[in-house]
Amino acid sequence: VVTNGRRHPQRPPKAYPGELIYARVIDINGSQCTLELKVASIKNDLKHFSEWHNSDRVNAFWGERGTAEQHKAYLKKQLVDPHVIPVIGHIDGTPFGYFEIYWAKEDNIAPFADSHDYDRGFHALVGDTPYRGPHVVSHWIASLTHYCFLADPRTMRVMLEPRADNDKFINYLNVSGYCREKDFNFPHKRAALMTISREHFFESHP
């Protein structure tokens, strides 16, 4: 299959909006909580999705401030794109963040990362302030990475491309086992290529 001039495998059908694709029990400050990843649903998620993007903190990195209608159109586009799964993260039923899990081969990162057929990556946005910080970040980084490796046994590498000056998030990724392969220039930002291999993930997350 060829998308935007890039040859890649045919991707499997995506889960439906609102469908649970991953769940695990995590420990936050001594309390047992359930972290869930569900495919974004316009009906259920547009309100908080729009509120998150209109916060100064999120807009500084995503640049998607706008109206609810604009955010609805954005979500619709992601929901029909075969190379992306837009996901809402929940902790004990409360939505806390938005993530885009993508196949790297047909993503904009491909020419910078020497992407293989089944490499994956994700973009991350934590909307609710109480769920920011190291006590939660390590859990959702591990959970999203775990999902990527579980979803297809042929996925050997997961990657992210945060802004090169986003030192806090890059440090969180380092602590979670990711390595900084290089920095490179996207048209809209200077980015750091952060990657983790299947072997290293399962060795460091028993």
What does the secondary structure layout of this molecule look like, with pairings?
Layout: E1 2-3, E2 6-7, E3 20-28, E4 31-39, H1 42-53, H2 56-62, H3 68-80, E5 84-91, E6 94-103, H4 110-113, E7 120-126, H5 134-151, E8 157-160, H6 167-175, E9 179-185, E10 190-197, H7 198-204
Parallel strand pairs: 7-8
Antiparallel strand pairs: 1-2, 3-4, 4-5, 5-6, 6-7, 8-10, 9-10
Helix pairs in contact: 1-3
Domain Acyltransferase MbtK/IucB-like conserved: 38-85
Protein name: Putative siderophore biosynthesis protein
GO molecular function: N-acyltransferase activity
How would you characterize this protein structure?
This protein has 206 residues and is an alpha+beta fold. Helix content is 34%, strand content 32%. The chain has an eight-stranded mixed sheet, sandwiched between helices. α1 packs across α3. The chain is globular. The relative contact order is 0.13. The mean pLDDT is 95.
The CATH top-level class label = Alpha Beta
How big a fraction of the residues is strand?
A: 25-35%
Low-confidence parts lasting 5 or more residues at pLDDT below 50? Answer: none
What class, by secondary structure content? alpha+beta
What is the residue-averaged pLDDT? 95
Output the CATH homologous superfamily. Gcn5-related N-acetyltransferase (GNAT)
CA distance, first residue to last residue: 36 Å
Number of strands: 10
Reported CATH architecture: 3-Layer(aba) Sandwich
Order of strands side by side in the largest beta sheet?
Answer: 3-4-5-6-7-8-10-9
- Which fold name corresponds to the CATH topology? Aminopeptidase
Shape: globular
The number of domains: 1
Helix content: 25-40%
What would you report as the Rg, rounded to the nearest angstrom?
A: 16 Å
Number of helical elements: 7
Order of helices and strands: EEEEHHHEEHEHEHEEH
Note the main sheet: 8 strands, mixed
**Subunit organisation of the chains:** single chain
